[in-house]
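My main concern about presentation is that the manuscript never shows what a single data entry looks like. In essence, backbone conformation is discretised, so a fold becomes a row of integers matching the chain in length. An entry of this sort, consisting of the sequence and the corresponding backbone structure tokens, reads as follows:
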Amino acid sequence: MISTGADVGTVLMGERRSANTVEVHPADSDSWPRLQRIDELAFGFTWPETGGDIHRDVLELDRTLIATIGGHDAGIASTYSLEMSVPGAPRQPVAGLTWVGVLPTHRRRGVLTALMRHHLNELHDQTREPVAALFASEPSIYGRFGYGPASQRLSIRIPREFARLTTPPEQDDPRPEFADADQVRPQLALVADAVAMQRPGLPARSPIWWDRTFDDQPGDREGFSALRTLLVADESGPRGYAIYSTKESWGPGGSKGELGIREIAATDPAAHRALWRVLLDTDLMGEVVYGMLPIDDPLLHQLVDPRRIQATVGDALFARLVDVDRALTSRTYASAIDVVLDLDDPFCPWNTGRWHLSGDSTGATCAPTTQAPDLALDARVAGAVYLGGTSLRGLADAGLVTEHRLGAVDATSRALLSARAPWCPFVF
């Protein structure tokens, strides 16, 4: 058990614990009912009587925390042990923060601060993942803990009558085929690995994570069909896949069904085009909906009438540098970089100070220095630019970066950017 005085005072040796002291306990094999209950009350839903097994199986109990006050449950947080693509590296260890919730009866009492402090301190003290990432239920919460918005996603709704592509099918275009998801999972994993070589932000998936991808409880379908899987493959191997379901609907004018995409990925333009052609031209569907499109997806340039898309930009991954030196040397850079960063990180004070970052497309070094700073920034900005999808120049224009050496912002911004926008196809 870990006691913390976050916002309410500390417990000294031999003293009786205050009824207001936040204590953080590791979960154990008997904690699942408690975790479910806290999750329900914090997020305002009820777990189904059946169908929760996959979430329990994916949860890492040895990295799950329960906060209590006065012996009463107050909040939870957990960590997934992920390997995620970052610029220049297809897989690097990343701590996926998840299941974060505080009971409505225990808000404003330091519970979240205690959980976050334990989470980040443990990563640092045990030299675990140098970077943490999350999807935020409320984005305004996590900036004070050093998380910055590192990627975006598009939620799109495409009316089928305007879903024509500019490029006609070519004679050698591949043909997607329906596939049994259980039989082709190895091929899907190969496609996902290949896409991770092209884009930062994609976590690797173990078999249990692929089970989660295909979790398809009838009670959760909301009128949609069972999941369907399309696969594009040829003699060279798998090139793309789409996972989707459909909802039948009819009106006075005829069919107006909905095709909802769970995930789509392709390794090359032809496979990408072939999958979208099938999805956009499925009979009896009035519109195609997808909530996780990459912000720079080629589809945006391929539609004849892109204005007809109903598209909403939303935040996706938030990133946090746990150990700035290890994090910044875990990725590569689009151009040569040689810069002294003056980093302010009050929540992880071991990061506060000046760091000399030098590198290029082959690798980098980052070490403490006493040299004069070129740029001053805080932990939230450092996290936001880490995956290469958020422009340091844009953050500087917003007043969030101070330039001490003329030209340092532009040069560093160019080096940090990724050729393709970061993308995570699922929420964890």
The longest helix spans residues 181-198. The longest strand covers residues 72-86. Residues 185 and 210 are 8 Å apart (CA to CA). Residues 2-16 have pLDDT under 50 and may be disordered.
